[in-house]
Amino acid sequence: MVNDSQINLIGKIIEVMDSQNKSLIGKKGKIIMETKNMIQLDNGIRLLKSHLTMKFNGEIIKGISLIGRLDSRIKKTRSKL
To answer: What DSSP element (H or E) covers 74?
Structure first.
């Protein structure tokens, strides 16, 4: 199983399960861009990782576990091993 911190988000289709901004709950889209703290969907919606819980591939992931760039998240995870 892949650790949440090692997931490459680009190209994943997600659904917002929970967010501090309640109007975003239920929104779906394909991730087209990822920064340290934010993801952008193909429909123009920008989401702060720290403020949301999302679902993809049948798994629910808290955005806060994905803060940081992918390469930094992988390095940090490997250094803890």
So the answer is: helix 70-80
